[in-house]
Amino acid sequence: MNLFSRSSLLRRPGSAAEDPAGTGSTGAPVLPDPGLAALTGEWMIDPAHSRIGFSVRHAMVTTVRGAFLEYESRLYFDGRDPSRSRAEISLATASVDTGVEQRDAHLIGRDFLDAGRYPRLSFVSTAVQIVDKDVYRMTGDLTIRGITGPVDLDLTYIGHVTDPFGYERVGFDGTTTINRSDWGLTYNARLAEGGAMVSERLRLQFDIAAIRTPVPA
Question: Could you tell me the pTM of the whole model?
Answer without folding.
Answer: 0.80
